[in-house]
Amino acid sequence: MNSTKQYVLQQLIRKQDNWVSGDYLASQLEVSRESIWKAINTLKRNGNQIISRKNLGYKYLGNSFLDADTINFYSNQQFEDNIHVFNETTSTQDIAKEFLSTHHVTEPVIFIANHQTKGYGRRGRSFYSPPETGLYFSVILPNPTSELFQVGLLTTSMSVIIAKVLESFYPDKEFQLKWVNDIYLDNHKVAGIITEAVLDLESNSAANFIMGVGINLTTQKFPTDLSTVARGIEPNAEINRNQLAATLIQQVIKNASDYTNPKLLSEYRRRSLILERQVTLQLGSNSIQGLAQQIGEDGGLVIKDNQGKLRTFKSGEVIKVDWN
Question: Start and end of every BPL/LPL catalytic domain (predicted)?
Answer without folding.
Answer: 78-264
